[in-house]
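Marked as duplicate of an earlier ticket. Keeping the data here for the record.
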Amino acid sequence: METVIDDWPYTDEPTACAACGSDDEKYVVVDSLGLVWGAAMRGGPSPTEVGDYGGTLEFRCCHDCWEGGVDALHEARSLVDWDARATGGAPFVLDDEKVAAAAQLDARRVAVGDLRPMEFRSDPEREHVRSQDEAVEAMLDAWFDD
């Protein structure tokens, strides 16, 4: 695992359930969720705070929390509902089950599994990625406001 950025809440290594804090020996490890989606977790940094980094998050989940809804994140790379049609000018639709599952997690119990600096070929490419981050942030804010 890579070093955690100093002002991010993440731990160096997931050692307890990210939802309840249990250190039960029966647990599942999830290591597929994209770094930007940590914003849906309690205390997670916003997509714009992640800045010019990409990567994945890694966390442990005990059996009870997994069965209690966190299993919606099994092999999830994002919180987008790829089968839903965006309406009203929204760029995409969030998957309610996945966002609710991520909201159960405490970012302080989640580790950065893979961290890499993003490389941009041009300023327009960087602006495009930043606008996507802003859209994710706005969509998550709206989801939690509802």
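See parent ticket for discussion. The chain has a mean pLDDT of 93.
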